[in-house]
Design goal:
This protein is of the alpha/beta class. The protein is built from eleven helices and seven strands. Helix 4 links the parallel strand 4 and strand 5.
């Protein structure tokens, strides 16, 4: 399985800082991190990487997207981590936040960062809300097991209303399909178990996120014995106009002494 891996490194590498590995959410790929976050983290002194999970971006597995389970995505992360010079800080967005949590149930890392992560109680309540608001595409998805039927819904909720529509459309052109099996794992069958996770965690929510609003992530933050931090961004906070607020907070947290390298 060929897994795409993008890297950005500082002009002068620091042996003091661990690498950072970014894990994207549903429909996305490594490209979503390379727009802003990877160069920003590299400038801050971190060797930074982003992978595309199987069936996403430039990785293999698109033709069999519905074969992949959460365990397969976790395996992709584990295989990439094994190639890195040291255990990385893991940053996961949305579905990728669950991948990071499931990885950390079995492996160690200096720290984890969860951005608009899928809720700890699963996605069933969110799915029922979407079913009420968008019954036809949700029904098509459930009948065909094809997540492409609901992707257009997210064009209106992944980004803030003030994001230029041409930019939003350009980002959506880069998005692909998602695994229905992985979606069901998140919704019901393979939810995170925070009590098994040891590293310190930073949990971030988006004030304008209508798909996973901050109040849902408050339970996630409590489970990791921390406070939810909220910024004026929508769901795709690494691509939003205020992305730098989130990236800056991650860097200051990693350098604050709360995380031990």
């Amino acid at each position: 399985m060929n897994i795409e891996l993008i890297s950005r490194k500082p002009e002068k590498s620091s042996q003091h800082y661990p690498p950072i590995l970014c894990v994207h959410g549903g429909y996305h790929g490594a490209w979503c991190w390379d727009e802003h976050f990877l160069p920003y983290f590299a400038k801050a002194g971190f060797d930074t990487y982003a992978l595309s999970l199987r069936g996403h971006g430039q990785s293999d597995g698109h033709d069999n997207i519905n074969r992949w389970r959460m365990a397969d995505y976790v395996m992709d992360v584990a295989n990439v981590v094994a190639q890195l010079p040291a255990a990385p800080v893991l940053i996961g967005h949305s579905l990728g936040g669950v991948v990071v949590q499931k990885y950390l149930e079995q492996h160690t890392a200096p720290a984890g960062v969860l951005l608009a992560s899928s809720p700890i109680q699963g996605m069933m309540a969110t799915s029922l809300k979407m079913m009420a608001q968008h019954p036809l595409p949700m029904l098509k998805m459930m009948v065909t097991f094809n997540m492409l039927h609901v992707r257009p819904i997210f064009e209106t909720i992944f980004f803030s209303d003030d994001m230029p529509r041409e930019q939003v459309r350009a980002y959506f052109e880069l998005m692909g399909n998602e695994s229905f099996r992985a979606f069901m794992d998140i919704a019901v069958f393979n939810k995170p178990r925070p009590h098994k996770v040891q590293p310190p965690m930073l949990v971030v929510g988006g004030e304008k996120d209508s798909s996973i609003p901050p109040q849902i992530n408050e339970a996630l933050a409590r489970a990791y014995r921390t406070q939810l931090e909220v910024f004026p961004v929508a769901h795709d906070m690494m691509l939003e106009a205020n992305w730098e607020l989130v990236a800056h907070r991650i860097v200051t947290w990693l350098k604050s002494g709360e995380v031990r390298f």
